[in-house]
Amino acid sequence: MTTADAARTLSLAGVSKQYGPSLAVSDVSLVVEPGRFLTLLGPSGSGKTTLLMMIAGFVAPSQGEIRLGAMPIGHLPPERRNFGMVFQGYALFPHMTVAENVAFPLKVRRRPKAEMAASVRQALDSVQLSALAGRMPRQLSGGQQQRAALARALVFKPHLLLLDEPLSALDKNLRADMQAELKHLHERIGLTFIYVTHDQQEALSMSDEIAILRDGRLVQQAAPQALYERPATRFVAGFLGRSNFLQGVVVSAGPDGFAYRCGDHGLRHDGDAAASGAAVLMTLRPEKIRVLGADESAINRLDGVIAGWTYLGDAYQFTVDVAGIGPLTVSTPTWRRATPETGSPIAIGWDGDAAVPVLPD
Ligand code: ADP
Ligand code: MG
Fold this sequence. Notes:
Elements: H1 3-7, E1 10-19, E2 22-32, E3 37-41, H2 48-56, E4 63-68, E5 71-72, H3 78-81, E6 83-86, H4 98-108, H5 113-126, H6 142-154, E7 160-164, H7 172-189, E8 192-197, H8 200-206, E9 209-214, E10 217-222, H9 224-229, H10 234-239, E11 244-254, E12 257-262, E13 265-270, E14 279-284, E15 290-292, E16 300-311, E17 316-322, E18 326-332, E19 345-350, E20 356-357
Parallel strand pairs: 3-8, 3-9, 6-7, 7-8
Antiparallel strand pairs: 1-2, 1-4, 4-5, 9-10, 11-12, 11-14, 12-13, 14-20, 15-19, 16-17, 16-19, 17-18
Helix pairs in contact: 4-5, 4-6, 5-6
The protein binds adenosine-5'-diphosphate (ADP) and magnesium ion.
């Protein structure tokens, strides 16, 4: 990191927010390097908006420190932080044109007229809205309004951009388009984005990094793939897509793998150490399980019975009952045999590194 980059790094240390007896945000520490796309992801009520409001300066932390580079900013009012914001319901001014809306933050900052016109043009260009500069907000579609709000947040060249569920009001298709647009915009302008959502698919597809919040606490921060492939806890595994959980006991262990018993079944894991005799909880994604043909083998193999199945077009999803373990969800993109039959036997298997150990929470 260069010195200039270090000066634009946002860091939170031990930040909490208490409302009466309850903690909306509890002891959150995180670092956001310049130019990153960080998503705060968690269920409703997990403290995402409160955390973003503290970064923006609208809510004062009860404890902890917020810094930009080496400079503490926790005492600064929102307008002195120079952060752009696109919030839920942070609507355009209805009586101003698009261009006037976008110019507004510059007027407040008393920028010279010539500079103002050039900056507004550039901001509208960056969201492909120049052609609609003279329209009133009510003459715009939902997606166009969102882009105008984005231009207004970018026009004063903020240090970073804060977005709180900006796409939640849009329908599914438009939402997917806007996700892609936002991601491209982020790549083009290289600004730090801190993005709030409760939608795990949105978080996985857009972010450089995801911070998972639960009950006001940050439980894990990592890149999307790392988070999906190596969740630290049962909660993270379950929140970020579907997963099976296997409760077992380690029967023998080496430095880079262990064998464990789950019900009456002997299973094998590669890639982590464990102590012999220890209880383990493993998470196993449905798409990591294979349906085995008569001549196929796998490091981990279980025989079960098809308890139910669903055809999803691009995949089959099976519920497989395994004695001593219970139902497992299996997702397989191909099924070349005759229509599956509920109640018929099925063999399933997975590789040594497909299931990973997680903390029970
Ligand atoms: P999220 O954005 O993840 O849905 P919030 O940050 O809005 O979560 O809320 C976190 C918790 O803090 C919730 O339990 C909420 O009820 C509480 N909370 C948020 N704002 C206030 C407030 N102004 N007064 C009291 N409690 C609040
Ligand atoms: Mg919220």
